[in-house]
Amino acid sequence: MSARNCEVLIIGAGLAGISAARILHAAGVDVLLLDKGRSVGGRMATRRIGNGAADHGAQFFTAASPEFQRTVDGWEADGFAFLWDIGWSTGSITGNEGENHTRYAIAGGMNRLMKHLAADIPTETGVRVVAVRQAETGWEAEADSGQIYTGAGLILTAPPPQALALLEAGNVPLTAMDAENLGRIHYSPALTGIFRIEGKVTIPSPGAVHRPAEPLPWIADNQQKGVSPDETVVTINSNGDYAQRYWDAPEVEILETMKATLAHYLAPGSRVVESQVQRWRYAFPRHTHSQPTLRTSGTRPLFFAGDAFQGPLVEGAWLSGAAAAAGLLGDADFLAARQTKQ
Ligand SMILES: Cc1cc2nc3c(=O)[nH]c(=O)nc-3n(C[C@H](O)[C@H](O)[C@H](O)COP(=O)(O)OP(=O)(O)OC[C@H]3O[C@@H](n4cnc5c(N)ncnc54)[C@H](O)[C@@H]3O)c2cc1C
């Protein structure tokens, strides 16, 4: 197998990876996105079930910064993002109590946006990287198939506990400071159930209930939300404590506890006809780095990005990817290595 060469390798085709890839691609850089998943998107995930579908990772997003708001406006103009609602309450997201951020969702599901954003970018999915190593003119990544990929620069967007394992497998030395900053990033897990319903649910408009104090704080009706026009499909997300408690439990046990909650929202005569569980080991960062990206010291050009850098959630991940791309485009070592490779 001959090596596959490019100028910048990006491991992880979630929001951060795609954000970085789009900027680099637009700047004329030969970029390659690699992801172990069957599709791009990472935690911006939408799963088909029967004739329906459910967002089973990110449920909505907010835009606090003008920069991200401009991006979201573009997604809205292109027919992807829509304003789902403003405000928050424990009974429904229509309550307008407490904070009053605008909350966006994606018509047809979060993953539809991700596929659109990655459509022009050279991408290989189904590629699990097992090690990254420094090479003479940059980096090399080894996939579990044995395939080698090389690039002058590298962006790692897998959650840092996973990304650090790739560096360790490739014997890449980190400074004590970088090792400390990256090593302190941990994630909470989450368990998500999706339920196909014969009949209807009574989840109030616009299709979600948020109960922050409960172990299963989020219940959403994907039909009302515009993700599953043809069938009623409900998403239930757990908090971290629930996920830890049930992580190793059989799927049937997790589904039973979730169904007990769902029962409160089933219209008379309706029933669950199919259900699935997704286990998210790295759902939400519990600690985020203070900067939007981290350039490792004393190594070939390597930037860390993702929702663990500066701000969590969808907005943080997107802006972090953009920061990593900007960092690489201004990185003297990358520019020199890129020239050597050309
Ligand atoms: C259940 C749940 C609900 C959420 N709800 C919301 C919400 O409502 N609003 C909000 O703003 N955010 C929400 N989030 C968080 C949001 O989804 C994330 O912050 C964001 O999607 C992170 O993007 P990312 O690019 O940093 O990481 P990811 O999307 O995780 O991308 C990393 C990618 O790296 C790939 N990868 C990892 N290791 C390897 C390897 N060895 N080889 C190849 N590829 C690899 C993974 O497959 C993945 O695609 C939620 C998350 C979960 C799990």
Can you walk me through this structure?
The protein folds into 2 domains: 4-36 and 126-185 and 287-341, FAD/NAD(P)-binding domain; 46-107 and 187-285, Polyamine Oxidase, Chain A, domain 2. 30% of the residues lie in helices and 29% in strands. It contains 10 helices and 19 strands. The protein has helices spanning 15-26, 66-77, 110-118, 160-169, 176-183, 222-225, 240-246, 251-262, 313-329, 332-341, and strands at 4-5, 8-11, 31-35, 46-49, 52-55, 81-86, 102-106, 123-125, 129-135, 138-143, 148-151, 153-156, 187-198, 208-210, 218-221, 232-237, 271-285, 294-295, 302-304. Strands 8-3-2-12-19-18 form a 6-stranded mixed sheet. Strands 14-15-16-13-17 form a 5-stranded antiparallel sheet. It is elongated, with a radius of gyration of 21 Å. The model has no long low-confidence stretch (mean pLDDT 94). Bound molecules: flavin-adenine dinucleotide. Flavin-adenine dinucleotide (FAD) is lined by residues 11-17, 34-37, 42-44, 57-61, 127-129, 157-158, 162, 190, 192, 237, 280, 283, 306-307, 312-314, 317.
